[in-house]
Amino acid sequence: MIKRLHKSSSAGSSSTANEPAYPVNLPRGLGKVLSRISIQSKFMLMLLAISILSVSVVGYIGFESGRTSLRAAAFDRLTEVRGSQSRQLEAALIELKNSIVLFAQTSGAGTAMDAYTAGFNQLNRPGAPPIPPSQDQALVDYYTNVFAADEEAKTGVKLDVPALLPRSYAQRYLQVHYTIPYTDPRLRIDVDDAGDSSQWSAANLRFNNFFRSVVQRLEFADALLIDTQGNVVYSANKGVDLGTNVLDGPFRGGDLTKAFNNALQSNALDNVEVTDFSAYEPAMEPTAWMVSPVGPAAQATGVLALQMPMSRINRLMTFDKQWEQTGLGATGETFLVGADELMRSDSRLFLEDPEAYRAAVIAAGTPADVADAAIRQGTTVLIQPAGTEATRLADQGQTGTLIADDYLGRKTLQAYAPVAGAQVRWNIVAKINVGEAFAPVASFTRTLVLSTSAIIFIVCVIAMILARLFLRPVKRLEAGSRQISAGDYGAVLPLRSLDEFGDLTVAFNEMSRNLALHKQLLEEQREENTKLLLSLMPESVVQRYRDGEENIALDHPDVSVIFADFVGLDELSARLQPEESLVIVNKLVHQFDAAARDLGIEQVRTQHNGYLASCGLNQPRLDNARRTVEFAIEMHNIVDRFNAENGYQLRLRAGIDTGTVGSGLIGTSSIDYDMWGGAVNLAYQVRRESTQPGVYVTSRVYDVVRDLHDFVPAGVVSRDGTDEPIYRLVESS
């Protein structure tokens, strides 16, 4: 029987108590944090995390989808406005072109051209009605004090009045009778006859109403008839250009001159030359022209030139200032830009708030004198630069949308396209500030954020409620566990559900019953262990061991030690199976243990072929040497009887010494109760160095028991460098 104890069997509770309360595979800090959070909180956090993640994912997808759709809708609206304006402008230009062709090719236009040309030429021939000197001076005064002064006030340009004064008699005559008498230029168009009895006045009496209706119905600023020599033989407004020559007069060289030449050279009845807006001094504002030949294609008698004012284009491009009603909001507008990157229609901000316009464009990089010129002239046409990435792309023939800074320096959505069918390089741009365009996006975002927050709040409340309801069984299990931890193994929980928690409750109750049973068994086992420990070691050692003391050692001053082995066992074991050899050893050891108990011998350790025992170790005995020798004799007798019963030839060899020994527990995971010291070593040495079977004792044992038993000298052993005699017990016959 081997005296070895496994520490875990008796100290398992202490090792468990030292284990950490958090998962060992987690980071220490995280484990501590998680260990302090209740399962209800963890469950609630799990529900919240899953719910919030789900809501967030759905919200994000909805947000991205909604934002994309709203942004696309903003661009689509702007593109639709640009497309609508472009179509309207193109349709208006086509309508005007068709109208001028129709008017130019009527017999009335040809007849009027002939009549006005004849009347104009008659005034340049001798015999024309005279012009009083006072009227000549009035003409000069008009040019100086009215026309030139107005031009300078509006444009800042000082005109060369002598260069502008009429050169031909017909021009002077017509302007004296039809221009300077009327301080309000708007009244001149209604004058059919100056009452001078001239041939030109007769023609005007006949045809002025026709051209007046053309101008007023089609909303042109003026209508000119120009003969093949370039003479303006008729003007519906009868301004300072009446009677001038577009080829060599003071207003020559402009777009009107180019259009006049192209129209006469086209040889096409339906040809219409359309010009871009440009400066035209008689009109005092940027002017565009539509020019078509009058008369047969092969022999045109002149051209009809209709002056297209900015007002008509502005009214179209500004929706007659009804921007908000057309879906452009508070910052949207459409405008035209020419190839020179100057505006061809007025800015919305300029029309609404000129001072705000001035501040904005200057801040955006427009020179202050340019902004001041626009305010002074009352228009941004041909003044305000509006070249942006959008206009440059449109000028390249591209159509599209983008987000970029506009001429006001504001970030805007812009839809751009070239204007088709105008015969001029015009580009149309529809724009609106990003903030306003994407206001639905911002509103949608706010609504989504608020709704998502509300959903998350509701989810939090629901999660708290569900966590409480769901974890009620856990709370009951926790309370039951506390009862068990307090030592109440009779705790029984009510079964209130048939789900997993119900199964857990059943398992808990079963565990409680098993723990109660195990407690009883453990107490019984502890009693058995106590008895076993007490049989193996002194009570004082047992108590110290149970108290957790690891290094336990005792000194014993007067102890007899016997170390015995079996001679012949190895040879016998070689012939037998391991199980048969073990049976032999166990039978002998069991008999040795019984004899030891009878004689007060304390078995210390048993090996395969050795038996270590003592007397006086756990319980001091004055006759320990005698008892040990008698135990050796009994062991010898046991072996002899065993041989006789089984037919074996085993012999006993034993060494006995007495003296001071130490004892204690050896090892950590496996505990051995062992002895050491000089007496133990010497007993072992005596047994080992005695080659013959028998019981051998040292001189100290011999001195004690020589009167009781017979011994013979058996040699010497070395003790601390000194030879010590040993004696062999004489076997009785």
State the helicity in percent bands.
Answer: 40-55%
Structural class by SSE content: alpha+beta
Overall mean confidence score, pLDDT: 83
CATH T-level fold name of the domain at 105-308: Beta-Lactamase
| Biggest pleated sheet | 9 strands, mixed
Taking Cα atoms only, what radius of gyration do you get, to the nearest Å? 64 Å
Given as residue ranges, the uncertain stretches (5+ residues, pLDDT < 50) are 1-22
In short:
With 733 residues, the chain is an alpha+beta fold.
Model description:
By secondary structure, this protein is of the alpha+beta class. Among the domains are: 105-308, Beta-Lactamase (2-Layer Sandwich), CATH 3.30.450; 537-729, Nucleotide cyclase, GGDEF domain (Alpha-Beta Plaits, 2-Layer Sandwich). Helices cover 52% and strands 18% of the residues. It has 24 helices and 18 strands. Strands 1, 11, 12, 13, 14, 15, 16, 17 and 18 form a nine-stranded mixed β-sheet that branches. Strands 3-2-6-5-4 form a five-stranded antiparallel β-sheet. Strand 2 (222-227) and strand 3 form a beta hairpin. Helix 4 (107-124) crosses helix 8. It is rod-shaped and about 195 Å long. It starts with a strand and ends with a strand. Mean pLDDT is 83; it is low at 1-22.
